[in-house]
Amino acid sequence: MRYELFYWPGIPGRGEFVRLALEAAGADYVDVGNDERAGGVAAVEALLEDAAATRPAFAPPVLRAGRTLVGQVAAILQFLGPRLGLVAKDAGDALWTHQLQLTIADLVAESHDVHHPVGIGSYYEDQKAEARRRAEEFRTQRIPKFLGHFERVLARNPKGPAHLVGARLSYADLSLFHAVEGLRYAFPKAVARIGDDIPHVLALAEAVKERPDIAAYLRSDRRLPFNEQDIFRRYPELDG
Amino acid sequence: MRYELFYWPGIPGRGEFVRLALEAAGADYVDVGNDERAGGVAAVEALLEDAAATRPAFAPPVLRAGRTLVGQVAAILQFLGPRLGLVAKDAGDALWTHQLQLTIADLVAESHDVHHPVGIGSYYEDQKAEARRRAEEFRTQRIPKFLGHFERVLARNPKGPAHLVGARLSYADLSLFHAVEGLRYAFPKAVARIGDDIPHVLALAEAVKERPDIAAYLRSDRRLPFNEQDIFRRYPELDG
To answer: Measured between CB atoms, does A61 come within 8 Å of chain B?
Structure first.
């Protein structure tokens, strides 16, 4: 099965959560938006605007797997999980993994809203004052709340703190790694400040980064660097 | 099976999406936060703060079904769907239903952020100017984008526009009804303005409202009225 990922080019974005799952599993996939031979951004736009689609996509990322099209990161990962061996077979464990993924999605959405608090469609430069206000709460309340939650989940995992669910890697571990990387990129001081409170979260992020499959991916040109068009943006004025 | 819904009392909130599914299916459930005999808000807080939980909840709503605890509205509905007969048996249809639910969740989150653009934890009164800015984009761009998407989904459903997925009621239909009700409560003028563009969405909302099970629920005291502590708030200054 060759998977096709439809996502905007040039940013890790929400597509990255899907890429990490595909990479960790060694899956065959094409990152359409970043691959001109596969159609590039025009192919992404054509998919989104396909007037013949009986199940139109709301926004990228969208994954195509044979005749299946699926959008929404958490739904894509839930679809891929069993196919890539990145989720437990037990239904209760799979549901818990998905629930964690949805909480990561909430964190990702808030991470974006910090620099676009009053208008998704307008420039950061036109809402810097509002972003500073929102960033203060995000740094002091929301990052500790989210990462503290995942710390608790890891600490209480009966199979040990190496993974969010059970004793094996899941797509939620990979996504938490990327969220932590993103937060460290955008809010290095804020994350450093709470480092002592989230040892298991940081250890998980490090362990994911050092997996041979992920390490090879991170060194490759398939891994796009964080940048200021993305969800996680390094605006030092927002890091307090 | 008696289901227990743990959610804050006094508001429909995100709990309402779960209540509607339980009500439409005639399920036996207790709305713990609103039921003093069941423990009320203290029981909700105790669940959230349960230091013995190996799978701690991030935020309500949380559903308890026997020994299963599940949080995150979309995950709760995915869990309940097959048990309540509110989702198709076909895996592809079920995944599509879930994907639609996740897009409704995005709409709900944005509906909340409109009146709290710079601080979830601070008062609306302290961010009214910012809320006005955000509301303009929400009214003119985001509501049309979201409801236009669901209109397209209905119009393109090969089984007809009466339901989002196939020819039967799903939890996504119920959730779309509540989202439309909420938007009409909070932004009556903005929704009225695009009414001609979303006939299928409005017809679906009306049909859900008129179902005997839902109509009886809406007349009951179990249905809490919208109010200004909730996600959807009627602040006329934000409706343009």
So the answer is: no
